[in-house]
Amino acid sequence: MAKESGITVNFSSNEINIRTKTLKDLRSPRFVHIFINEKERHLLIRRCEERDNDAFPIDYAAVEIDKKCRFKAKPLVIYLASVIGLPYPSKTLRFYGNLLEDGDTVLIDLDDHQFLPYSDKKMPGVRYG
Hints:
Layout: E1 6-10, E2 15-19, H1 20-25, E3 31-37, E4 42-48, E5 56-57, H2 60-66, E6 68-72, H3 74-84, E7 93-99, E8 105-115
Antiparallel strand pairs: 1-2, 1-7, 2-6, 3-4, 3-5, 4-8, 7-8
C-alpha cells in the first residue's frame, strides 16, 4: 500500500493518530488544528505555527519512534463517534485524506472509512458479528 495522508481513530484508547505522510503534506507543522464539519461530514487537519488553546503540538521525536503522531483527545473522539453515527466505544477506524490546494489543509471524508481488524480485542458494550 502506498503511503497516503490520513488518520486512524482508536475509540478504545481515545487516540487520534495522524499519519506521517499527512504531516509531510502539511510541510511539517509545529501544531495542527482539527476541525469537524458535522453538516458536510468532513474532518479537516490544518497546519498552524503558533500555539493556541485548540492546537495540538507535534512531537517529532515521538513521530520518529512510532512513525505516527498520537493525540489523546477523548472529547473529540466521542464527538467524532457521534458525528459518524457509531457507538462509543467502537472499533478502530482508518480514514484517508487529500491535501487541499491551499497546501495547509488535509480534507478527510468521514463517510469514507475502513474498520481495522483487531478481532482479538473485544470491548464491553459493543456487539460483534
